[in-house]
């Protein structure tokens, strides 16, 4: 038996409304308690960690991560993505199924689980495809995917365009109490587009995606969730109108949740003036009004949680012309600092509010009852970070195999120091 005590830190456990300087006790792989020495624990723990000046919180959970294995291991592998997660303080990641081949069968889901275990970095949980081959025609075998370890379903990379298929997916996934995560985009409205449609796209002469392409599908799917009683999760929400639609859906009692990505509440489409493909992602960067609406959605709880949409692409692919380069940015190693700098430093959210959207809420979405909190017996996945020190993001230090990060050179707060997974230290910030 190994006892670990993390002492002197500010413990923030949003699920239990804990925010105080105290000790966190761990026995082997599980949380033993917060506070004085629990019965059964020795006078001196086997491992003593000094967390003075640091915040100690449940390991972060990212429900939206693209690993490129199988199919494009030059951009990311399951192991490199899981290492990138740990360096960002993220102890659990949900892997999107848009690999080659896609994760649309029990065997494919089991492969992701196995490679995640082999890597022994962050926990890796597969998200199964909604449709066979992600082709949007026939429902995948959702029951088999659950057997293989799937924690939700999505065709992300593409939307489920067919309303009929979406309706059945919501109904079927509900039998397992799992969510359908939807990439909301009406494809007919976005053909050939590379950025947001508006003043900036007109000025640059680039084809744009109208915000309505997102809004229309959000509206449709909220209605489908309402009539089926199924669980709908809106991925990477980016428009003011979509935020309003989710707010109104929740008010009516529809089972809808939403996530926002750091780039959508920190950057606008003006960035495309550089023609730099690092600002090309889907959904695209929108306007300042959309950014403000996303932040307001985070503040009032309309947007439940944060996720990265970590979308690694090799230099080779991203260095192509803006109209041919792939969509996507990486995010695991900047999630906490960029969110903290944009939302906590500016006093839009408190630390416990921000951390709730990175721990408690994502755990709920995926039904991970033993994660995202410090209750007795919970998995001892713990992140220790420095909330004060200002530091500079440098992509050259990243664990990810890709470098398509729009935050290189940013001055930020929130630096991850130590990460424990199931009670063991699996990441320590290099000091040189
Ligand atoms: N977000 C992106 O711009 N790209 C994602 C796909 C997706 O999330 O839809 C990718 O897989 O590269
Ligand atoms: Zn998507
Ligand atoms: Zn995605």
Overview features:
globular, Urease, subunit C, domain 1, 21% strand, 432 residues, Dihydroorotase, 12 helices, TIM Barrel, zinc, binds N-carbamoyl-L-aspartate, eight-stranded mixed sheet, pyrimidine biosynthesis, alpha/beta, zinc ion binding, binds zinc ion, metal-binding, 20 strands
Write the layout of secondary structure elements.
Layout: E1 3-13, E2 18-27, E3 30-34, E4 47-50, E5 55-58, E6 60-65, H1 78-87, E7 90-95, H2 106-119, E8 123-126, H3 142-147, E9 153-154, H4 163-174, E10 179-182, E11 195-196, H5 199-204, E12 208-209, H6 211-228, E13 231-234, H7 240-251, E14 256-260, H8 288-300, E15 305-306, H9 315-318, H10 335-344, H11 351-356, H12 360-365, E16 382-386, E17 391-392, E18 411-412, E19 415-421, E20 424-428
Parallel strand pairs: 1-4, 1-5, 6-7, 7-8, 9-10, 10-13, 11-12, 13-14, 14-15
Antiparallel strand pairs: 1-2, 2-3, 5-16, 16-19, 17-18, 19-20
The chain binds N-carbamoyl-L-aspartate and zinc ion (ZN) (2 copies).
Cofactor: Zn(2+)
InterPro entries: DHOase, DHOase/Allantoinase_Hydrolase, DHOase_cat, Dihydroorotase_CS, Metal-dep_hydrolase_composite, Metal_Hydrolase
Binding site for Zn(2+) 2: 156, 183, 236
